[in-house]
Design a protein that fits this description.
mainly alpha, two-stranded antiparallel sheet, 2 strands, 2% strand
């Protein structure tokens, strides 16, 4: 069973890092750009953490997949989530080149999350026509998702069985809140009191990466055979 220790470790480390970041943000404003600006320390730490999750998951899938009680579906899910998050952080490699980000009706597309801004821009600029286009895209995505769920229903059923482990449920619930909050700050639906949302966004994304890491570590205890009592 998933150990509650994974949750407490996450809470402790996350709390410590958040306090340190807040302390640095308040006491060393001159370093805020170096720490929190896009492409600097905090974003690089998040990207490195997410890529480490992917590598750890890949290692487990290669060398531990035949272990009794190995949660294959869960490891695949969190490893893939780590890779996806890493690619989002590095804008799918664009930031490593001299190539400019593509723009659609003035919206810079650097990752999947920017399609939220694109949808809002379509509705704002084109009214009903824009809203209809967004709705059509959502419906098409829903059909694609339904087909994917049906095709991989056995794997999804195996993954869904993990929900009964309360600590994992808590971590993933927190992850959803973090991602939703990040999107709201990214689109400036929510605003920081300072008017600069970047530090909050970077901190939220770093915490989300920690959730993925501790979720992956935690599920390794699920269904592991108990050692015989001598």
């Amino acid at each position: 069973m998933l150990s509650i220790k994974s949750v407490w470790w996450f809470i402790g480390i996350s709390l410590l890092l958040n306090v340190l970041n807040f302390w640095a943000y308040i006491n060393y404003p001159g370093y805020n750009v170096i720490i929190f600006h896009e492409g600097h320390l905090m974003e690089n730490l998040t990207a490195g953490l997410l890529f480490s999750v992917f590598l750890f998951g890949a290692y487990l899938l290669k060398y531990r997949r035949n272990d009794e009680g190995f949660p294959r579906a869960g490891v695949m899910f969190f490893s893939a989530l780590g890779l996806f998050g890493f690619l989002e952080e590095i804008s799918y490699g664009v930031i490593m080149t001299n190539i400019s980000h593509p723009r659609v009706i003035g919206v810079k597309l650097s990752g999947v999350h920017d399609f939220i801004g694109l949808g809002l821009k379509l509705v704002e600029d084109y009214g009903v026509a824009g809203a209809s286009l967004v709705l059509l895209f959502v419906l098409a995505s829903g059909v694609f998702l339904f087909k994917a769920i049906y095709k991989y229903r056995e794997k999804i059923r195996e993954l869904a069985s993990l929900k009964k482990y309360h600590p994992l449920y808590l971590l993933m619930g927190f992850f959803i809140v973090l991602i939703f909050s990040s999107a709201l700050f990214d689109q400036k639906i929510l605003m920081s009191p300072t008017g600069n949302n970047t530090p909050i966004e970077e901190l939220i994304e770093f915490n989300a990466a920690l959730v993925i890491l501790f979720s992956l570590i935690g599920i390794l205890k699920i269904n592991q055979p108990k050692k015989p009592v001598l």
